[in-house]
Amino acid sequence: MTKLDILIAEDEPAQREMLSGFLAKQGHHVLTAANGEEALAKVKAHTLDLAIVDYKMPGLTGLDVLQKAKQINPGLDLLILTAFGTIDTAVAAMKAGAADYLSKPIDLEELLIVIDRIAGRRTLESENEILREQIREKEVSQDQIVHGSRQMAELINLAGRVAASNATVLIQGESGTGKELFARLIHRLSPRSAKPLIVVNCAALSENLIESELFGHERGAFTGATQKRVGRFEQADGGSLFLDEIGEISPAVQVKLLRLLQEGEFQRVGGNQTFKADVRLISATNQDLGSRIKEGAFREDLFYRLNVVPLKIPPLRERREDITPLVDHFVRRFAKENRKPIEGVSREAMDQLVKYDYPGNIRELENILERAVVIARGATLTAAELPFGGRLPDEEEETGAGEGSLRQALETLERRMVADAMKAAGGNQSRAAEMLGLSERMLRYKLKKHKLKS
To answer: Which residues of 323-346 are buried (b: 16+ CB within 10 A; e: fewer)?
Structure first.
């Protein structure tokens, strides 16, 4: 538990001493004050993290102390103590900037929970400020990870803490959630930032090519190998290698990758010479590797080597607080790129954008907004420019539900989702496969199966 510098402002001596002794036993540094004036004097004289203030005290009330203490130290957190029957005053204190309030008599376990939450938030804010300074120093573009949710703030904070190490990182999340952006952030904040970050999409390479792509090959190693080729691990020496869709690699490549992670050594395809590789490995997947292990398709020992630090990015539908800042960001960007005088988004359009579930996540939102900006006629994007046609997809799909067999319904749904992904990706199979969480090989199969143009 983080230790805080805490001030207790309470006019009842027994309550003041009880709270002071209890928090001191938890390891906190505690000061006390018998009234509001004394409390403000100590706020001026000391560097404090938290003030626990009784609402009803002689002279200055707790609300008065709250307002004046915030003027002295805007970063100070205040916890208001209120008697039963005065909840309205506690709510007023919260509106004035209190971090929380507790009703008397004080439940000490509840007090510890509130203090732990405040301490955790202060630690996160402090670390994020340090991280923002590092980002400014290393000229990492903040455009990369636009967010408004606490979940993403915590993930960015974790990425910043992990960056300084050489530990492998496994980034998990659905297609389109921004896994590569996190890999780039980790690399740019690491001591390896002066060296290259090499990106390999394992799903885009055939089983025959991926081993050669990663480890290189000697001349004559296979038909068509007319000259020696340096692999991605050699290219990334001293830097970082990002393996996207790591779950797609074959068992044979998994064995070589495991050896490299254990020994730091590898051999080119068709060669006997052993090479050393000083590479920080960051990998990503949209698959459940635990299930792949149970199926025998992925090595458990390799998983543990890759998963030293797991980073799980939630889908956009689980962090809707991010949608509005992302909409603002993309609208500004595409308006500038297309030289369109777009000033914002209508209330109805924003309502639809926030409520939509985004199976393709941020990549789908980006595509929707690029299209909307391009076809917009006015200075404000309206619901008419969105692909929902004034209604959300779920509303449109209600008609006809339950007709036919389950197999027919699933086939119809699969065909529509594949067609929609191809349309959203502008016909690009790699992007469409990522949006659907499929390999390109599986997407090509489904395009043929449903007689859809590729």
So the answer is: beebbbebbebbbeeeebebeebb
Per DSSP, 96 falls in state T
| pTM > 0.85: yes or no | no
Cα 213 to chain centroid, rounded: 29
Q: What is the CATH number of the domain that holds 438?
A: 1.10.10.60
Give the tens place of pLDDT for each residue, 36-51: 999 999 999 888 999 9
Predicted confidence (pLDDT) per residue in 299-345, tens digit: 999 999 999 999 999 999 999 999 999 999 999 999 999 999 998 89
Give the position of tokens 């509303």: 395
Does 261 map to a domain? yes
Domain with 426 in it: 404-454
Flag whether 178 is in a domain: yes
Specify whether 116 is located in the same domain as 175.
Answer: no
Domain count, the chain: 4
Name the residue among 435, 448, 451 with its Cα closest to residue 173. Answer: 435
SS3 221: coil
